[in-house]
Amino acid sequence: MDGYLAGLRAITPELTLTGLALLVLVYDLLKKGRDSAQVGIITLVGLGVVAVQLLGSYGAQPQQVLGMVTVDAFAGFFKLFTVGSLVVVTIFVLADRNERRHGTGEYYFLLLGAAIGIFFMVGTTNLLLLMLGLELLSLASYSLAGFHKGDRASAEAALKYVIFGGLSAGIMLYGISLLYGLTGSLDLGEMARGEQLAQQLTNNPTPVAIAILLVLAGFAYKVSVVPFHFWTPDVYEGAPTPVTTFLAVASKAAGFGALLRFIQVLFMSDGVREAVVSYGERIGLLLAILAAVTMTLGNLGALRQSSVKRMLAYSSIAHAGYLLMGLATMESAGFQAAMFYLAAYYFMNLGAFGFLLYFEGVTGSDTYESLKGLGWKAPLVSVAMVVFLVSLTGLPPTVGFYGKYLLFQEAIGGGFAWLAVVAGINSVISLFYYMRVAKMLFLAAPAEENPAPQVAFTGLVAGLGALTVLFGIYTSPIQDWVRASFGG
Amino acid sequence: MVNILFYICAVAAIASALGVVSARSPINSVLSLLGTFFSLAVIYLLAGFQFMAAIQILVYGGAIMVLFLFVIMLLNLGNPEQVAQADPLFKPGRATGVALAVSGAALLLGLLAAHALPADHLSPVPAGSGRAMIETLADAIFGKYVLPFEVASVMLLAAAVGVLVLAKRERPGLLDTEAEDNR
After folding, report:
1. Is the peptide bond before A397 cis (omega within 30 degrees of 0)?
2. Which residue of chain B comes nearest to A113, CA vs CA?
3. What is the ipTM of this complex?
4. Looking at CA atoms only, how far is residue A179 from chain B in angstroms?
5. Is the distance from CB of A359 to CB of A347 less than 8 angstroms?
6. Is A415 left (phi over 0), alpha (psi -120 to 50) or beta?
7. Closest Cβ–Cβ partner in B158, B165, B170 for A136
8. Could you list the mean pLDDT of each consecutive 10-residue stretch along chain A, which spans 488 residues?
9. Do B166 and A149 touch (CB under 8 A)?
């Protein structure tokens, strides 16, 4: 009983988040859906409380509670990341000029529900809980993608997302059931240390290979890696922009968090059998090939878009490829580089989507054309956007540059020099389409209309831009944090 | 005996699952789904989970299936003129016949299995442990797996709210009441 209570104490942030989600739901019901902005404010306050709890438990001894929840610095990194992106997304929802002001209370509930899913996804080595967390995140995301149900594109996005998501969840679940059948355990640690998996790998590796491939396919869908990326452009374009931001930042990071933990515990943790470790290196090669294909296809796709939102969707596919570079090394340093890049990705992508949302509110459109000359009308947001674009390309002096530098260094050190060359060529390609936005903003003749300024929102986007530069020059806080989160 | 029964049921389950996605009329799809549920119930029985088998038939084969049928009937009745012109809702064609035959056969096989199998095969609980099967199940759900159980409940709540968001009608009245409040 005491163990149980101690376990509940250890998962206080999860419980608070669940309580907050229920509070938001009930409050919205009592208000009969009027003045949904109040619900958003409650969400922000609650998220602040969760962030304080997470920071308070920072640096505590890693422990496993309730039989399957791992509370450690690694989970803490991704939980704080999630709360941080959720705060920004909530502000986006509040600032979204295309959103109804009433009857949108469920928006916040669904966002919080997705966050609870992420918390359990990144905080477990148990495949059952991992799957449940993943499904909670997915189910909430499906309905969020279709939140503007009157809008055809939004309805289409939700439907596509559900169908591809259901398929990939089935594939992943099948892989997990095979792993369970082969090893008799649902816990990754037990699997890696136990005899069955090692024996199976030495005698007949095919079933294990199939099982691991199926599980990886599920992850590949969540982080939109080729060949499971087809849903990304349509869903990102059709979903309301704050939801797209959530999918591109929080959901993708959660997928990477769970994938990192999956690979780390199964192939790299202490006490893993020889046969399993050597098998992991082959997985590394597979990830390297996927990384090369993903970044190339993502960048080539982004070149041909006329909508900035769709371009950002392809760019997020390309970035999944860059991140996979770090995973392919199968070494702690590579994983740390990937986590650093995720932190960089947080600033530059939240900022880029914030910019997009700002100008959607002004022009009601997300095409390159509609941005013509607007840089002179809203200079602060636009200059910040140029910073984000420079960072997304990976040029100094931004945080994106340093993240990419780390990834290149680790890839070359891990024996994937060819991958670094491919990534370099891809970065040059990406410069082309990212800079098109900057060109439209500043080098084209200004349009007639005068946008009404959103002061607070401008401040948020400009702040993200400032942080992108600040952490590009002064990288040690993020680096220390990443190193502390991924010890080993 | 067990193996043969398993393979028959596995093939039946896959065949009816294919029927679900390939049938043209929704009613035929639902009936094929029934075939899958019944075949799965027999497989549970063969694995020694009588309770799961019974629940599978009661909850899925019974309640959920009826719900599906209701929804299909109600949706098709949306426009009376269309319904009058359209084909009859339920045409007992060949696919329906096959689906019903599969479900019936699966049920029969299940009964057969329940009678023919030796008693110890039907129980994963060691004989003489003095515990019933449902107790072991309850122990697992509310003991070792209580957290996944609770997470699943949050997941269902999120799914229910999500469906509500997508399905509820827009209320144009909301904005009007707001205007009144401001006056």
Report:
1. yes
2. B158
3. 0.91
4. 19
5. no
6. left
7. B158
8. 82 95 93 86 96 89 88 94 96 87 87 96 94 96 90 91 94 95 91 88 90 95 92 94 95 96 90 87 92 95 92 95 93 93 95 92 85 85 93 92 94 93 94 91 74 82 92 91 82
9. yes
